[in-house]
């Protein structure tokens, strides 16, 4: 599973106490994409594990486990 986007920043946004803000990378909303099918045995196994853990019928190669589980 590979990130869908890398966002270069000129500087990291900081809070008043010089700590990184919650949106350090300026998290972008992902565009809905079509699910890509697994290309090899490793990807098939990983997608099968995600399906089992999340109780889903289908998971694509580019899907993010945490987005699917609603955990952040």
Give me the secondary-structure topology.
Blueprint: H1 41-54, H2 65-69
**β content, as a range?**
under 5%
- Overall strand count: 0
Helix content: 25-40%
Helices and strands: which structural class? mainly alpha
Give me the strand/helix succession.
HH
Outline: elongated
Low-confidence stretches: 24-30
Account of the 3D structure:
- About 10% of the residues have low confidence.
- The radius of gyration is 16 Å and the shape is elongated.
- The longest helix is centred in the middle third of the chain and has 14 residues.
- By secondary structure, the chain is mainly α.
- Helices cover 26% and strands 0% of the residues.
- The protein is built from two helices and no strands.
Condensed summary:
This protein is an all-alpha fold.
Q: What distinguishing features does this structure have?
A:
72 residues; mainly alpha; 26% helix; 0% strand; elongated
